[in-house]
Fold these 2 entries.
Entry 1:
Amino acid sequence: MGKMWGGRFSKPTDSAMERFNASIGFDWQLWAADIRGSIAYAAALERAGLISAQERAALVEGLQAVYAEFECGAYEPRLADEDIHTAVERRLGELIGETARKLHTGRSRNDQVATDTRLYLRDKIGALRAALLALQATIVQRAEEHLDVLMPGYTHLQQAQPLLFSHWLMSYFWMLQRDRERLDELTRRVDVCPLGAGAVAGNALGVDRAALAADLGFSRISENSVDAVSDRDYVAEFLFWATLTQTHLSRLAEDLIIWSSVEFGFVSLDEAFTTGSSLMPQKRNPDSLELLRGKAGRLLGDLVGLLAVLKGLPSAYDKDLQEDKEPLFDAVETMTLSLAVAERVIRTLRVHAEAMAQALADGLLATDLADYLVRKGVAFRRSHELVGMAVRRAEALGIRLRELPLTEFQAISDAFGPDLYDVFDFRHAVERRDVPGGTATDAVRAQIAQAKSVL
Amino acid sequence: MGKMWGGRFSKPTDSAMERFNASIGFDWQLWAADIRGSIAYAAALERAGLISAQERAALVEGLQAVYAEFECGAYEPRLADEDIHTAVERRLGELIGETARKLHTGRSRNDQVATDTRLYLRDKIGALRAALLALQATIVQRAEEHLDVLMPGYTHLQQAQPLLFSHWLMSYFWMLQRDRERLDELTRRVDVCPLGAGAVAGNALGVDRAALAADLGFSRISENSVDAVSDRDYVAEFLFWATLTQTHLSRLAEDLIIWSSVEFGFVSLDEAFTTGSSLMPQKRNPDSLELLRGKAGRLLGDLVGLLAVLKGLPSAYDKDLQEDKEPLFDAVETMTLSLAVAERVIRTLRVHAEAMAQALADGLLATDLADYLVRKGVAFRRSHELVGMAVRRAEALGIRLRELPLTEFQAISDAFGPDLYDVFDFRHAVERRDVPGGTATDAVRAQIAQAKSVL
Amino acid sequence: MGKMWGGRFSKPTDSAMERFNASIGFDWQLWAADIRGSIAYAAALERAGLISAQERAALVEGLQAVYAEFECGAYEPRLADEDIHTAVERRLGELIGETARKLHTGRSRNDQVATDTRLYLRDKIGALRAALLALQATIVQRAEEHLDVLMPGYTHLQQAQPLLFSHWLMSYFWMLQRDRERLDELTRRVDVCPLGAGAVAGNALGVDRAALAADLGFSRISENSVDAVSDRDYVAEFLFWATLTQTHLSRLAEDLIIWSSVEFGFVSLDEAFTTGSSLMPQKRNPDSLELLRGKAGRLLGDLVGLLAVLKGLPSAYDKDLQEDKEPLFDAVETMTLSLAVAERVIRTLRVHAEAMAQALADGLLATDLADYLVRKGVAFRRSHELVGMAVRRAEALGIRLRELPLTEFQAISDAFGPDLYDVFDFRHAVERRDVPGGTATDAVRAQIAQAKSVL
Amino acid sequence: MGKMWGGRFSKPTDSAMERFNASIGFDWQLWAADIRGSIAYAAALERAGLISAQERAALVEGLQAVYAEFECGAYEPRLADEDIHTAVERRLGELIGETARKLHTGRSRNDQVATDTRLYLRDKIGALRAALLALQATIVQRAEEHLDVLMPGYTHLQQAQPLLFSHWLMSYFWMLQRDRERLDELTRRVDVCPLGAGAVAGNALGVDRAALAADLGFSRISENSVDAVSDRDYVAEFLFWATLTQTHLSRLAEDLIIWSSVEFGFVSLDEAFTTGSSLMPQKRNPDSLELLRGKAGRLLGDLVGLLAVLKGLPSAYDKDLQEDKEPLFDAVETMTLSLAVAERVIRTLRVHAEAMAQALADGLLATDLADYLVRKGVAFRRSHELVGMAVRRAEALGIRLRELPLTEFQAISDAFGPDLYDVFDFRHAVERRDVPGGTATDAVRAQIAQAKSVL
């Protein structure tokens, strides 16, 4: 029992073509899904009266035996198997003989592979969702632990306004929360059974598609057989999800890479997430973070690869669609490791509150000083100018803003009074931002409570 | 009244830098959203006791005057305006004087532009959703009109099995249906008000964020100010939506480009959607379809551009984020035209049923012949081989499969009987595929009914 | 002997981190290059007086032994090896003991991996260049064989003007010629030796970089150590080369996929480059061509992945750079198979001259008819209009253009005379396009001669 | 005089289609090239005896008048013009009447637009090449000025080994040098004249292509008319060049953004290349650098857009190719500004040598300490371990490495002697790296001399 086709052919496949064409080198990963799908299909064939109960039992038993062989790693991909469907059917034939040749009745590899891929992805999404939740939970926990830590907030990587470290950290919670929403939404579009679509026109032998879907745990069946065999939207959506999620992790990584430089010194990675240099004995490099950053590029490549494959493809199944598997498998594997590593990095991160406190510079309070003038009745746009001038003056004098004498301030505007110096309190500046979503301690506490409620 | 900043600066911006930096050349498109946001913000300032009722009235009146000027096209972008926020505030100052300088109290361009962009996109999505629905409705209508048309179904662009033309056409309905689902889902993430997030740390002057959101018609407020000013997920999601939707249109276009070749001759575009050649007088080219196909590449470029910008960006606002606007505006404009053109092309498409019928070749029934053998008790994998051999034999003889004499068939297998010739009925082959989602007339009717129910 | 670093570390690497970090799963492919580089480096150490001649001999012998083990497939990647450099050094230590610990003196994995990758790629480029040449040669040969075959030329997939089949085929020769030029050019930038750049600052032990480069067959040494360890331009260039080359193959594939449809019927693939269907016994699908088309998307993904990784990376070596390997290896493998398959597909392609001839429609001669009017003194823009009207008239009457009676022609313009019918000669139309680069037989012959001269 | 086609059409273009189809909104940028090409084509027509000398003179004079109108900005794009070719021919007809209708004889917009685009790009490349050179020259000049400045060298953004600031800066010179090489190489492939290729099959009226090329200053003519009208390789190559060049600028920008943070404080941008905040008066943001970084993403989008358009396109001209213009124009404009801004930023950059000196930490010398042990006869791999242990010990004691007492060192290994402390000299460590391409002053001087020789 060789290929699934060949009666019409008078010569074998070219050897380079065989390697070019074969997907078994990667789609063997679908083995469990493929066998599960076939077991359900055997039931459908019996239900449709196409095989006997006995034949079905033989098929199921044989498929379970094949499953066991795969499970214990006995299978090794071989080129002649072409793809996982052929590999399973070939082995089934070796085990149970002629009955195996009835399994594919009315089925096409087109609806089969679509079913396999959806089963595979549905399972993987479960694990990824859990990993995402774990990372979110760790973020919340670390945010709660460090509610008292002040740090400079940055825009354009220049000091902007003081923040709670926890507020910064929680910003990633919400990015991941959107990622989780998107994952849940796309899962509904993965959860559709294409089996029974045949090659393109639909099954002609009366298999019960609803029963098939139910057996395989799918919530819905596909509505159109042409679409069913060529729909790869769910793969594209998943790759987009992965790319955007990893983009979030890349931003987290970038922050932490910069902050773990000796010049910033705000955080240290646990050693277990750093590696050394082969040449420089002192090195402890944040490789974990750099990989989290770099993988966002890799996943973007996966996404682009698939979308470029799909673009302009004629309707229904074309062989180009085989190119969906490798980016999908790569994205699943990458995200699995990335989410796990990110969670552990955050869980074990050492936060240097003192270094953060020392980094707080007076410029962080310039907005508060402008607000001070607003309270004195100065229009904001004017108060912004006046404080800007004060900042410039202090800089020219080489002193901190709070060290600028009152006379200097008043030379700029007589709206400045001696109480202006009360502004120079980082903690107070933080607590003033007490709107929902702001950095004040109570606002962050409320944020954390909200976060817990969506976990 | 010039820039929104400058007190701290001792020299002007470099001229090349000014052009490099300015976004007014494109972000003027946000004018309506920007003014709308400012009117709401004026109300928030009054509510917070930061301006008087009179001042608020002056601001609102002034903003409405600026709105009117923009609406009648009186505004022309000028480099010195830097961005739309500056342009509006500058003009407001010219119209109402000093009070204008209070408008920006406690607000940053960071939360302002995020608000503007969301307001802009929310509006555009409304129109795009309607355009998508219109295209879906036209597909359903054309599918209903042509329920009697048979055509070859293709996989790998080789004839596979006969299909109803309507079944093929409906396959695009379901792709677009997923696009509509995705659009609805992402809209919920656009519909979030970031105003009050300030530059990064949250508003310090007690503006009522819930009221602001309500005034602007947003369902929710952002939960974290750091995230609020740097979140561009909704732009990325929209660009992905646009790319995938256009990818569907590109596949539709590819089918129709091939089918409108003189060699296929299955369809003709209405002349109004073709153009001629400057050199070749006979030409009537399907430019509309080719552009629908090409635009999928363009949109993929937009998507990649944004994701590459976001990757590895430090937290909160960085100027790189300004690069989100042009791909967004381009995608909105492209999708608006694409959906309109696609709808009109389908609405006016001429379907050549006779040419389709003539193209039906006997190979399309080979699967049915294999099924015939299955009904005779031959295992499917064997029946596939036998029919393959028959196909090969007919080809060798240079005749159609149905012209192969019974003796020839029986030389291949004695399971063939004289009733085999009953298989050669394209209509019958179509009607056999009567599972849900299959190409049988009743199944397509049910599909159309289902489609109408989701419209 | 474990990792190459660790003295400074007090705890082991986290298990998930270890898997995330290790590159041995793919960079083992660099084994030959790595060992070759180390043999040269041992010589450099001796030359610099850092090891004795005896030590060098031990190192070289040991490295050759390791090479032999890899060559016969004895090595299996293991996670603990981290990367190929560690794997080789570990095994070397097992074989020759303490002296192995001197090999890395003054070297860093940063300059080592850059050297390995360049050695690897330089070798692969040699093979790819030969494959490109072979494909070009086959194109020329097939073009020569079919110089007498006429076919419709298309623009917008609509019949445009008649062409020689050979002229169409030769168009791909020139695309591939540009690909070869680009490959040669980028090779000069691959051919640069970074060894001796150390981790970032340059070698401090006086190794002779020129001698190292010479030993490894490099033409030049890198000019700056910071650049040397982080330069991945040559990988990006190679990926761009691969993407553009494959894009050319994708266009060739698209033409042939359409032409091998039964509706066109212009060409047939040799069976050895087609595959069958698991369900439909009649199928012979052009999978080879579809994969050639799809792989262009895949390679674009590889290119984007790398460029997105590089974008915005801090200077010198960052771990993100490890993400260069997999797209590079994938592109090398993909191009190797693609070029081989493309060459064989073209070599064995069956060309159906009769079907092409039958497809020639009169519209293809409309430009020639306009030229006829130009010769009669009608301005071209007017003659274009007049012929357009004639085409429309013939279409309305449901007849071929040449069947339109003279009276009808003259009703459109009296510039038409009875000699207009001489225009209707496809061969003549082809021969009129006799400018260099045109489709006339002599021009194509000249083109082929030119092609041979650049091979 | 309206469209260039229409005789064959019985109804006007649909209004949405007209907007979708028209390229005049962007391709008006080709006006100068288009007119220049037409002037040369008029000469070719006369040469071929298709028009009289008088007619040619009228055409040329008319085209010059149109040129003058465009030059002074009198032309405004209008939808009905469809594209720049139509716009110019329309206006020419208005000015000189009937003779204008002879200009397009034997020419197609397919070869015309290919010619225009190549002329346009050739001109732009000249300016971009000059801008690249200017940036390189400025880098060399600044490197020469700061040859005495020491700074920490980084890998993984962790301190690695000391560097000369000039050495770091020169690393960008070499990246840009490769960019210049690539630009020169691709220019040779832009410099090819497609005019005379007609629509697809070549010119049938005997125009002298060599003379046309010479008139337009092209070095070569295209070898195949099918390829000539659909070749967009030179656009793709240019976009790749732009993307990779900007990727280099993005890395430069990333370095400088981090170094201009207050925490690093190594450099300051001139104020003219920073901008302020609308809310925070103290801010001076490095927007110029952030845009340089972000634009690398934008350009990658342009590149992907084009490559995805080209992939799988049928041979010869398809309307999809119109999508090449906008990314090309965008890339030209972006690179023009980016290179100018980058040059000015570097020219005016303030370098804080003292801050760099203060940042030098002892870990930077750990490699030198390991080399010290090597000189004492310890195998490098062992010396690396021993120094790693010393680093760990110093860290545990909370002291600098040079503060670790000799007894502590000797507790780790008795190979350490009192002369070990001589290693702690940053300048010396720099000067030890004196191989070609190393950071020693003399090596950098040699590098600068080499750089000057390639300028």
Entry 2:
Amino acid sequence: MGNCCERAANFFGPQKNTYIRVSLPAVCFVWQIAMVVLFGVFIRYDEESDEKGWNEFKKSHNITSNIENDFYFRYPSFQDVHVMIFVGFGFLMTFLKRYSFGGVGFNFLIAAFGLQWALLMQGWFHALDPVTGKITIGIESLINADFCCAGSLIAYGALLGKVSPVQLMVVTLFGVTLFAVEEYIILDLFHCRDAGGAMVIHTFGGYYGLAISWVLYRPNLNLSKRLNGSVYHSDLFAMIGALFLWMFWPSFNSAITNHGAGQHRTVINTYLALASCVLTTFAISSMSQKKGKLDMVHIQNASLAAGVAMGTAAELMITPYGSIIVGFCCGIISTFGYLYVTPFLEKKLKLQDTCGIHNLHAVPGMLGGFVGAIVAATATEEIYGKEGLIETFDLTGKFENRTMSTQGGYQAAGTCVAIAFGLVGGVCVGFILRFPIWGDPADDFCFDDEAYWEYCFAQFMSHIVVYYQLLEALS
Amino acid sequence: MGNCCERAANFFGPQKNTYIRVSLPAVCFVWQIAMVVLFGVFIRYDEESDEKGWNEFKKSHNITSNIENDFYFRYPSFQDVHVMIFVGFGFLMTFLKRYSFGGVGFNFLIAAFGLQWALLMQGWFHALDPVTGKITIGIESLINADFCCAGSLIAYGALLGKVSPVQLMVVTLFGVTLFAVEEYIILDLFHCRDAGGAMVIHTFGGYYGLAISWVLYRPNLNLSKRLNGSVYHSDLFAMIGALFLWMFWPSFNSAITNHGAGQHRTVINTYLALASCVLTTFAISSMSQKKGKLDMVHIQNASLAAGVAMGTAAELMITPYGSIIVGFCCGIISTFGYLYVTPFLEKKLKLQDTCGIHNLHAVPGMLGGFVGAIVAATATEEIYGKEGLIETFDLTGKFENRTMSTQGGYQAAGTCVAIAFGLVGGVCVGFILRFPIWGDPADDFCFDDEAYWEYCFAQFMSHIVVYYQLLEALS
Amino acid sequence: MGNCCERAANFFGPQKNTYIRVSLPAVCFVWQIAMVVLFGVFIRYDEESDEKGWNEFKKSHNITSNIENDFYFRYPSFQDVHVMIFVGFGFLMTFLKRYSFGGVGFNFLIAAFGLQWALLMQGWFHALDPVTGKITIGIESLINADFCCAGSLIAYGALLGKVSPVQLMVVTLFGVTLFAVEEYIILDLFHCRDAGGAMVIHTFGGYYGLAISWVLYRPNLNLSKRLNGSVYHSDLFAMIGALFLWMFWPSFNSAITNHGAGQHRTVINTYLALASCVLTTFAISSMSQKKGKLDMVHIQNASLAAGVAMGTAAELMITPYGSIIVGFCCGIISTFGYLYVTPFLEKKLKLQDTCGIHNLHAVPGMLGGFVGAIVAATATEEIYGKEGLIETFDLTGKFENRTMSTQGGYQAAGTCVAIAFGLVGGVCVGFILRFPIWGDPADDFCFDDEAYWEYCFAQFMSHIVVYYQLLEALS
């Protein structure tokens, strides 16, 4: 059987360069040991997860019930976000007929590394105690760490099937680092609101992945064309991912918004926008084919674009019909993107974007940033109440006197920062990934789990071989 | 390859009538634009999701903590219900070997449309402010909207594989409308309790679907017989749907029950009934086959019947062993239904019920309505406490003096109303769907994703062709 | 077609002994009726789920808000645990190419029975009211019942594909009984802390399954070797189970820990350990193969070992970096187990462990027990605060004066009790299962759904037959 496996594997030419027996374990071990050391030096429980700290916190804040612990406000949303990161993103990327292991497996690896590194990077920028020099973490840190991974997982969508797991670890290392910096600029310096990360997660992640993919352009990728597609059941696996993303997106956008009405409203807005997006996605998908048939790629992807585009505005008073309008437009824009823009980018800009993250993350994220800017600029005390306006935009301290139009301007500027970080960071990381040491597959060996997974595809391939031999014999 | 696709597609005869390139986009766009307008006119945030409103609400109700926002009582259950609607119902309907895209995809479409229309319809009947003329929505509205969709999704179960997506939109439009009316009669006028919707969701949805299917009877459906069945992996996909329904049914029944002991008890009752139901389902399934082998259809469906049948009674003091007895009976009744009643209905009543919703929703729902009536009629102050009885049955205002036996009578009457609405409404909608404009497939082209999905089954079919050619050649 | 099915089924020899048409229904019916009777005699709602009781409880405890009901502290975690039991364990066991129905289906059956029996057994030992003679149940009881099932489901992992469903019911009946006794000894008599069940669930369940499998050794199991493996899509189904287990393990470990900081900290610790474990699992998996390719078996299983190993210590102040170190070691140990220990056990100890529970549950569980002992022994008032130490270890009543080193000693002793109960109990149950009345499959008919599921594999098999015939003809 082993012999048969090997013969089958050689059928389409020799495997180049995909030897990762040294590099992958080395990267995993060294970086994980670094995590142990850095966590030992820096990371501690925050006062709501520390046994002693919480008892003191309750006394000092006159809290009588444990239900006031932030844990109970955030944990259900956290678990939904966690499912989106690992099952949502992971299974959405199983749609390729023979790269499903790589889709869900490498997603697992890079998210597991990324969230540790994110706790450190985000901690240094946002939660470093100047006195003790420690970072304290709680449930909100875990949600933010998952968010931070999402940026790199989005980038993976553009690279799916064309890079090695070692390269993906590098993408994640730099992706998380860049994320933490741009997030610091956008959320802290610019004092923008972006609870669902339309700017910091989706715009950044989208352009980061596209820039990397552009640098890593493969002129002969059509040699792997036969595998760059789905089969019936791989599309169903991808549908699992798509639906969990779609269903839990209200949790994604509301996970770190303000307690009470803030989380409540964010859920309503996201829920409505996503529902609306589904209908326009089906409409455009059906219109685009001569017999009106639907395309699974659109249903799996474009129907999610509204969640991205509501990332900033969902926590604001965008109104229910405002949300529906955003969803309406996103379904159209994103499906058009899959139909016309992705092929255009590939032909004209030499940009190969396997999952079409340009249409699902980059453009809707950018759109979401600007929608957020408009909704922020038009916010008034009449709508939010004096107290509500201050709470929603956190206009305290040195931002006390910021006007709403200024806020809107900063929101728009934040979107531009996210794009810039994505593009520039992506190009730099792309050049790093071009060193010939990472074990990436040859052009004729892309989109193939055979490269990195111990699995015998002989049975699968032999079926195809048999079929063609028979067709020939019968003709 | 395109040529090969076409040849393969023509193998079993020409495709009739399934051109939906105009009708589906038209329906999606027009109805979605109507939603935008109607939401703009009618829908606003309620006081717990409105920034200003919540701050005022807290002051006027002397609430100090945001955790008192209804959001934190309902959101975890809401997300479970959401998963049931989209992954539960969706994947349960992927069991057909070649209609999995249609099962999960059209479920997605009609639920996304249905929940928007449900927010409006239910709002007009239950939450229209007479002063402002606005409907205010919060987390409980979203749960109810999901519930309302469930009625139409159940109906889809009877129609699976035999209708076009445009027809399904029509089914949903009328289904949601009828639902809102019967719900208003049962819950408001009759003042019944039906938190999990045994009557309003399952009985109505079941008979609605059956009546439609009866009107749409296809005498030559056996021409599509070869596709009306499962393959190994499609049954596993369906098992994903079945398990998520089974696991989250306690959330379904408890999502809108009273805070505190009400939600708590509903979960316990539903959990126990479902567990009990699994054992009798396995028992009857094994007894029914000569070698004692189990049938996946029973396991996927009949084990859920207890959740349906507990829809009304779960929030009442039915006692743990009462719940187990209900589950015990449901497993038996539902499995017998799959074994004997569904074939009987098809042969004698000319009623084609693809998913067997008669056994999973219609009969258990009706049963649940009557169980609820009995448990309500036997409720006493001794069991509930004076305060508890008033709270549980909401006996305030003009219902202050209603006796428990009267309540029981109204519950029973409510079940009959649900049946009547389902049957009459379904027959009417069925006749509408018989107009030859909807793009439904011909009798020999049912249960086939080829009709509405851009997908090349040539590879799949060629395998079968090769196999038969070879069998012939060898014989 | 029936004829063809039968021919195909006889292809690899006659089916022996798998007639369960009498025994399975009998066991299901009789045991379920026993449940009805026992629940009727013993089980009642507790004061937080009883309508009258909760109103009285609120008054007597001066509680004004329903949010103080334990339901709101536990329900989100409960649902996550529920998903782990039914989808997590169920789908993890679908990895075999032709035993996926049995994996997920029998998991469903035994968990549904086990949780009812667990409510009774655990109730008698922990919650029997000496005055009324009743067991009162609430949300925590449901979580504990799910936990209790997990012990038997773990044991099923070692037996997967080699036993009949009737045998599995017997395994569960005794498994739950033994579990309740060892749990009583460890948690009540020894007064150990073991919120995530490293000892009581995983160590016990692991050794229980291994001991049964050892007694049921099948010398000719290699006759079924062709089916003891995965295919591409069955590995993806298993990945669904693995990911839901991985994502929800923080909920598993925190589901019954103390409110407030306790649950909060448990989640953080488990989350970090699991992330760390993924990286070392990938590293060792890659190192073990000559080309550095990854093995799905390791990714699906070894990456979960950290959750097991944190079962005891996660609720303690193990520190974030302590958690990461535990995860680091577990990934290495567990993957080595799959590579070297499982083959060794099979060859030398005649121990056939289908899912490798030795590496995923038995060893990590034992390790977790000892880690917990160390962390407990080193606990100080300085770290926990005086109040926190008493709360965390529940040092009240007769345990008021227990020192931390004594506590550590008891924790270690508890681990040994769990091992002893697993091994001795497993051997006894194994001998019971050797009676020739249970309908288990012959050695050449293992790992095959054909034995217990009404399903025609003719199509599947014919493809293989065709393939070999053609290969021969062409050579």
